[in-house]
Amino acid sequence: MSTDSNQITRDYMDSLLVEQRLLDAVLPDTTLTLYGTRFSTPVMMAALSHLDSCYPQGMVEMARGAAAAGAVMWAGMGDEAELEAIVATGAKTIKIIKPYADEGLILRKLRHAQDCGAFAVGMDIDHAFGRRGGYDNVLGQPMTAKSQEQLAGYIRATSLPFIVKGVLSVQDAVKCAEAGAQGIVVSHHHGILESAVPPVKILPRIVEAVGARMPVFVDCGIQSGMDVFKAMARGATAVSVGRKIMEFLHTDGAAGVTRAVEELTGELAAAMARTGTASLAAMDPTVIWEN
Ligand SMILES: Cc1cc2nc3c(=O)[nH]c(=O)nc-3n(C[C@H](O)[C@H](O)[C@H](O)COP(=O)(O)O)c2cc1C
After folding, report:
1. Which of 190, 227, 228 to mutate for ligand 1's pocket (most ligand atoms within 8 Å of CB)?
2. Exposure string over 197-222, b if 16+ CB within 10 A, otherwise e
3. Cα gap 88→95, rounded to integer Å
4. Domains present along the chain, CATH in parentheses
5. CA-CA distance, 162 to 37, in Å (whole number)?
6. Which among 158, 253, 262, 170 is positioned nearest to 216, based on CA atoms?
7. Could you tell me where the beta strands, DSSP code E, fall in the chain?
8. Which residues fall within 8 angstroms of residue 226, CB to CB, at 6 or more apart?
9. Quick one: which of 71, 66, 127, 122 has its CA closest to 95?
10. What is the pTM for the complete model shown?
11. Which residues line ligand 1 (CB under 6 A)?
C-alpha cells in the first residue's frame, strides 16, 4: 500500500462510481455564483506560483486564460508586481499568502491585495512545517504555524473574503468558521502530508460541519470533468485544478488554459446531464457509490 498522498487520492477518486438518472434529465447549468459574482464554471485555477519555467510569465498567462474562460483565478506565492499584472488581466483573483513568520509582511500583503483589486485573499496554512520537523522556509522566507487567534486577526485586517487553504480535518474547518473565515480549501497541497486522507473522501464530513456557513472548495488530483463532478456531488462549492491545467499552459499558453477549463466544464456538464443534475445547486451525493 502506497503512502504517497497523490497516489492514494488518485486511487480514491477512481474508486468512486456514479449511477445514472436519465428520466426528466435536462441540459445542465454549470454557472457558479461566488461572493456575489457569477462565473461560467466551478473549475478554478489552483493557487499556483513560479510558473515561468512552464510558460513565459506563466502566472499572468494563466490569468488571461482564466479570464477568457470566465473562471476564478487563484494566485499563490509571488511579488506585488506579479499580482498587479494578474489582476490587470481582468481575472477575478484570489490571492493566497503564505504563513510567513513575519506578521508585518502578512499584513502588508493583505493590504496590497485589497488595494490592487483582488477578489478575495487567504492563507495556505499547510505550508507551516517542513518535511523534517521544524518550520518550513520557502525561498529564504521562514514560515510558522498560525493560531486560530492569528487567523481571526488576518480576517479582521481585510474587507475581502478570507479563505483558509489546506484544511484536512473537521477540527480545523470548525476553527476556521469560528474565526470568521469566508471559505476553506480542503487540500493536502499535492502531498505535503504523507498518507493524507483524500480531500474528496473527508469532504462530506467537513461540509456537514461548516458547509452552511461558508463555501467549501477542494483541490488535489482533479484531472477530468468526472473528477470535478465527483467532488461537487460530494459537497464542494467549486474545485481548483493545478497540475492538469499547467500541462495546457505549457503547450498553448492562455489559449490552452481556456481550452482546458472548457473541456473540464464540458465533461462536468456531461456527467451532470446523465445524473439528472440540473445545476450546481442541485448536486446530490446519493448519485455516488463508494466502492
Ligand atoms: C508549481 C506549483 C506551485 C504551487 N504554489 C502554491 C502556492 O504558492 N501557494 C499555495 O497555496 N499552493 C501552491 N501550490 C499547490 C496548489 O495550489 C494545489 O493545492 C496543488 O497543486 C493540488 O492541486 P493539483 O493536484 O490540481 O495540482 C502549488 C502547486 C504547484 C504544482
Report:
1. 190
2. bbbbbbbbebbebbbebbbbbbbbbb
3. 14
4. 5-290 (3.20.20.70)
5. 16
6. 170
7. 16-18, 32-34, 37-39, 43-45, 73-75, 93-97, 120-124, 137-138, 141-142, 162-167, 183-186, 216-218, 238-241, 288-290
8. 18, 267, 268, 271
9. 122
10. 0.98
11. 46-50, 76-77, 96, 124, 165, 187, 189-190, 219-222, 241-244
Residue nearest to atom 12 of ligand 1 (CA): 47
Three-state DSSP at 120 gives strand
CA 139 to each of CA 58, 78, 98, 193: distance values in angstroms, whole numbers, following the listed order: 18, 11, 12, 20
- Going from the Cα of 75 to the center of ligand 1, the distance in angstroms, rounded, reads 9
8-state DSSP, 40: S
Over its length of 291 residues, how does the chain's per-residue pLDDT go in tens digits? 789 999 999 999 999 999 999 999 999 999 999 999 999 999 999 999 999 999 999 999 999 999 999 999 999 999 999 999 999 999 999 999 999 999 999 999 999 999 999 999 999 999 999 988 899 999 999 999 999 999 999 999 999 999 999 999 999 999 999 999 999 999 999 999 999 999 999 999 999 999 999 999 999 999 999 999 999 999 999 999 999 999 999 999 999 999 999 999 999 999 999 999 999 999 999 999 998
Q: In the numeric block, which cell numbers belong to residue 169?
A: 480535518
